[in-house]
């Protein structure tokens, strides 16, 4: 059948519209800026740099880290949220951004459901319930509760600061076990650990990554981990559930994100690269050496998880009494 003049004209009119899609370059064409909302050297920074190294190798462009610490991660997170949605700014957004901050702060400069385009889960690590071996005789959680309740002056627990997952975990534990526990905030595990080893602080439920060396040395005793399953770095340490603490699955996690509005093909390409990285055995082993586990999810899975966990974190913030400007 011979095409009509109208059909030919219609096809010629549509052809220019198709050209941009055919000629569209594949992301990334240039350097990608990666804003880390935490200082250099911390677990989020170290694991992000490891990811960037892998992204660069797989996608052929530089991924350059820019640290923007301050305000509990809010300064860096806000910088990501307000960046151009062109795929050339991204950042590791921790659990605080996705699920805790809205209950902890009077005001946030961003809305996690509206202002970010998640790419994928990045890493996950549990907290570990630790006591200083020299000063606390308890060898499991039950014995610790009995020991703590017998102390007329109560006990104290350390954390990296007000509103952090170690602070909220300690407050939840004390409330559920009816233990008189005083929170002692520090600037990080580098200060908390010496205070515990000198006997000034009795316990912590802190990020596992910082404590593996002192646990292996025997100076700290790990009573439980807060993940749903035992952690590969400490296979002999029970979970909180195994230790008799039901409904105490508390893990820190991080998801990489673009600002909202980035085109879906870019998101999907970044997500596919992160999936390949998370499945790489050598990468898994490097993450485990830091105490973390490399993980992957769909973009939608990030927000689904945040929304599922928010009620628990809201309860924990309420119990702790934490509130920040």
From TrEMBL:
It holds the Pfam family TctC. Keywords: Signal. SUPFAM superfamilies: Periplasmic binding protein-like II (SSF53850). InterPro entries: BUG, Bug_dom1. It comes from the Bacteria. Residues 1-23 form the signal peptide. Belongs to the UPF0065 (bug) family. PANTHER family: BLR1237 PROTEIN, TRICARBOXYLATE-BINDING PROTEIN. This is Tripartite tricarboxylate transporter substrate binding protein. It comes from Sabulicella glaciei. The lineage of its organism: Bacteria, Pseudomonadati, Pseudomonadota, Alphaproteobacteria, Acetobacterales.
């Amino acid at each position: 059948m011979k095409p009509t003049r109208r059909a030919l004209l219609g096809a010629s009119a549509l052809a220019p519209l198709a050209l941009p899609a055919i000629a569209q370059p594949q992301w990334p064409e240039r350097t990608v800026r990666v804003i880390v909302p935490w200082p250099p050297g911390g677990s989020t920074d170290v694991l992000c740099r490891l990811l960037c190294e892998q992204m660069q190798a797989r996608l052929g462009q530089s991924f350059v880290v820019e640290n923007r610490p301050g305000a509990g991660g809010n300064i860096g997170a806000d910088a990501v949220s307000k960046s151009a949605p062109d795929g050339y700014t991204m950042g590791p957004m921790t659990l605080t951004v996705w699920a805790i901050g809205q209950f902890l702060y009077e005001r946030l400069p961003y809305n996690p459901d509206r202002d970010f385009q998640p790419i994928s889960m990045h890493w996950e690590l549990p907290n570990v319930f630790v006591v200083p071996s020299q000063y606390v005789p308890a060898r499991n959680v039950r014995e610790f509760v009995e020991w703590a309740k017998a102390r007329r002056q109560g006990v104290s627990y350390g954390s990296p600061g007000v509103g952090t997952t170690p602070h909220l975990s300690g407050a939840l534990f004390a409330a559920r076990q009816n233990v008189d526990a005083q929170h002692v905030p520090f600037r990080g595990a580098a200060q908390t650990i010496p205070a515990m080893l000198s006997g000034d602080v009795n316990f912590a439920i802190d990020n596992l990554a910082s404590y593996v060396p002192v646990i292996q040395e025997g100076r700290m005793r790990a009573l439980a981990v807060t993940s749903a399953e035992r952690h590969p770095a400490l296979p002999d340490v029970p979970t909180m559930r195994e230790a008799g603490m039901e409904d105490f699955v508390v893990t820190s996690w991080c998801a990489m994100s673009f600002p909202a509005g980035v085109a879906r093909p870019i998101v999907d390409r970044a997500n596919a690269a992160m999936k390949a990285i998370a499945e790489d055995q050598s990468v898994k082993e490097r993450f485990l050496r830091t105490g973390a586990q490399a993980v992957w999810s769909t973009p939608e899975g990030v927000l689904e998880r945040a929304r599922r966990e928010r009620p628990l974190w809201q309860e924990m913030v309420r119990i702790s009494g934490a509130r920040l400007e």
